[in-house]
Amino acid sequence: MSACIGEPISWLRLETYALDRADAAVRDHLAACAACAACMTEIERDVVALPPLVVPERKRRTWWPLLLVPAAALAFVVLRPKPRGFTVKGIGEVTIGVVRERAGTITYDAHQYRPGDRWKVFVTCPPDAGAYIDVSVGSDRPLAPAHLACGNRVMVPGAFTLDGGTNRVCVHVAAAPDAAGDQACVTIRPE
């Protein structure tokens, strides 16, 4: 795959463009850039794509929740989960995460599921690298191994569901198809 001719178009912006084809800047960039056009083709071929992300409207709040902000900030600093990051030779620093879709609501880094929830895995790695990704849930491999161009929160193609108690979703990342690489895992429990 060749490099982008300028600033690459984000995956989210390409997915949005695939829905309505309204962004003229994206259309013009895709006409000139083979790298971004290849990403757009991959999006269009994804037969198990999740529906578009729906961002719920924020409700108007009163002033009293502002009193909770200092306490919440302190709790976030003390209790925030450590990122699931690791270093892979030939790629650099890699971080993984999961996205849950439940009845049209998207939640990043959720750790509980109900029957019918759908999941996607995302990877963040240096934008000048590529990574070979293999996702496993226990002994199952719900997604086909994939090669991804690195970037921020790059979605691994495909989606899956979970069942049967506690599940350990592991993502193996390598610089080449048969390289050793490394992996990180996320534990997801039923509600």
The CATH architecture of the largest domain would be Sandwich
Task: Give the class-level CATH name of the largest domain.
Answer: Mainly Beta
Overall shape: it is globular
Work out the number of β strands: 10
Structural features, described:
The chain is α+β, with helices and mostly antiparallel strands and 191 residues long. The protein has 2 domains: 11-45, no CATH class; 82-190, Immunoglobulin-like. It has 4 helices and 10 strands; from the N terminus they run ααααββββββββββ. It has helices at 11-20, 24-32, 34-45, 69-79, and strands at residues 84-88, 92-102, 105-108, 112-113, 118-124, 130-137, 146-149, 154-155, 167-174, 182-190. The strands form 2 sheets. Strands 1, 2, 3, 5 and 8 form a 5-stranded antiparallel beta sheet that branches. Strands 4-10-9-6-7 form a 5-stranded mixed beta sheet, with no helix packed on it. β2 and β3 form a beta hairpin. α1 packs across α3 (34-45) and α2 crosses α3. The chain is globular and about 50 Å long. The N and C termini lie far apart (42 Å).
